[in-house]
Write a structure and sequence with these properties.
Layout: H1 3-8, H2 13-26, H3 30-40, H4 45-49, H5 53-63, H6 66-111
Length: 112
């Protein structure tokens, strides 16, 4: 059983709703990521959205040159298979952070 699932099993309904809402607010949306990949992927738009600024800037600069544009086009195709994993990983990290905050608050209020 994963760490997040073990922690989530200790939460009541109100805390689970709070967790879900915070993940929606702080997490990334899969549809938005793929729309950015499709329309702005050649200049790194999806990478900027997902917080991968270094490689996004590299894609943007490479696109300005002819040889770089060919490389970026291949990079863009490879990213089609990676965007899904990046969004899921980011949202899992957000969920873990929010879970830790909820558990800390829960422990603090239990000791009072």
């Amino acid at each position: 059983m994963s760490y997040n699932v073990a922690l989530k099993s200790q939460l009541d309904a109100r805390e689970l709703l709070l967790l879900e809402q915070e993940v929606k607010n702080q997490g990334k949306n899969m549809v938005v990521a793929y729309v950015l990949w499709y329309f702005l992927g050649i200049v790194g738009g999806h990478r900027f959205y997902l917080g991968k600024k270094g490689s996004a800037i590299a894609q943007l600069i490479l696109t300005l040159t002819l040889i770089g544009a060919v490389i970026t086009a291949i990079w863009w195709l490879v990213d089609a298979f990676l965007v899904h994993t990046w969004v899921k990983d980011h949202n899992r990290d957000v969920e873990g952070k929010v879970l830790e905050q909820i558990m800390r608050q829960k422990n603090v209020s239990a000791t009072m």
